[in-house]
Q: What sequence folds into this?
């Protein structure tokens, strides 16, 4: 960034959300400050009442870059969803680039490349790119994510999966204001509802370039709670997202929800929760079909019922023998 840009109205706001990120925030901020742009940017740090020295780190960077960095400070914890939303609300730029405090960008041309793409095509509401997944010590766990091919996508693809990593995303400011009240109760499903809203009124572009590193820390995120938790949260997402979509998309949403219930039935059965497995399998069985076979749903329901029956029979035998 050139010094002449610092007092100008920002074209891009970089929203950095942080909670107990003192060890990693300097790396994230340095990766943003290293961006080579011919347009002004701002950095908005949303700190969710961190208990470590995250706020002190943020203030020290603001002292060095007072015309670029602003801090959204909290006196109490507001939660992950509201921290994201309120940080976005504080952003003044035409575009918002999203970055969590423990992740970082690896390409100094990232913002310039994405702005060029979005300025050249007003139909693009959301622009992402590929990322690497790395461990805390820098070991590359995955050198290119997501698995989707690069290109232009729409609402149908976004309803199938959340394929734009948040640390890669640049979106048009204001899209987040369409979020319904249930968004704040959907943690840790953070970006997916926003991406659906973006795809509902425009296009989504995935650029063919790796430009950021996501730091994977086992046990650090709610998603680390396992497959059952992930499938459950995605089912809840589908239960809610239907309310913001035209009716022509409802069948797709319900079919995708059914797939999550089918997976939930499997994982619940593995954990010995046979009654809950049967209930999930029934929900899957009642959901509409798209391209998937009715056979898989029937198999899931049959397996759930059989295992619950076996479980009840064993309990009865134990009770009779006492």
A:
């Amino acid at each position: 960034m050139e010094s002449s840009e610092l007092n100008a109205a920002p074209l891009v706001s970089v929203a950095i959300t942080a909670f107990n990120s003192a060890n990693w925030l300097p790396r994230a901020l340095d990766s943003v400050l290293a961006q080579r742009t011919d347009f002004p940017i701002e950095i908005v740090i949303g700190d969710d009442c961190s208990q470590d020295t995250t706020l002190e780190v943020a203030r020290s960077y603001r002292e060095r870059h007072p015309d670029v960095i602003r801090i959204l400070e909290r006196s109490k914890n507001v939660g992950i969803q509201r921290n994201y939303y309120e940080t976005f609300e504080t952003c003044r730029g035409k575009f918002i680039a999203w970055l969590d405090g423990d992740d970082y960008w690896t390409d100094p041309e990232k913002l310039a490349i994405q702005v060029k793409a979005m300025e050249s095509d007003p139909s693009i509401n959301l622009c992402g790119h590929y990322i690497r997944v790395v461990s805390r010590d820098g070991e590359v766990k995955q050198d290119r994510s997501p698995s989707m091919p690069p290109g232009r996508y729409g609402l149908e693809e976004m309803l199938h999966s959340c394929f734009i990593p948040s640390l890669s995303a640049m979106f048009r400011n204001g899209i987040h204001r369409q979020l319904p009240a249930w968004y704040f109760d959907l943690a840790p499903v953070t970006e997916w509802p926003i991406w659906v809203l973006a795809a509902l009124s425009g296009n989504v572009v995935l650029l063919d370039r790796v430009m950021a590193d996501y730091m994977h820390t086992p046990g650090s995120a709610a998603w680390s709670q396992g497959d059952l938790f992930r499938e459950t949260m995605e089912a809840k997402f589908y239960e809610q997202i239907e309310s913001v979509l035209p009716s022509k998309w409802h069948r797709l949403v319900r079919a995708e929800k059914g797939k999550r219930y089918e997976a939930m039935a499997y994982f619940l059965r593995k954990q010995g929760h046979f009654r809950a497995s049967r209930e999930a399998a029934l929900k899957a069985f009642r959901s509409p079909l798209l391209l998937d076979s009715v056979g898989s749903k029937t198999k899931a329901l049959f397996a759930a019922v059989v295992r619950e029956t076996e479980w009840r029979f064993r309990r009865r035998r134990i009770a009779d023998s006492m």
About this structure: The two ends are 78 Å apart (CA to CA). The beta strands are 12-18, 41-47, 69-72, 95-100, 104-105, 124-134, 140-145, 151-153, 170-172, 203-215. The first helix runs from residue 25 to 33.
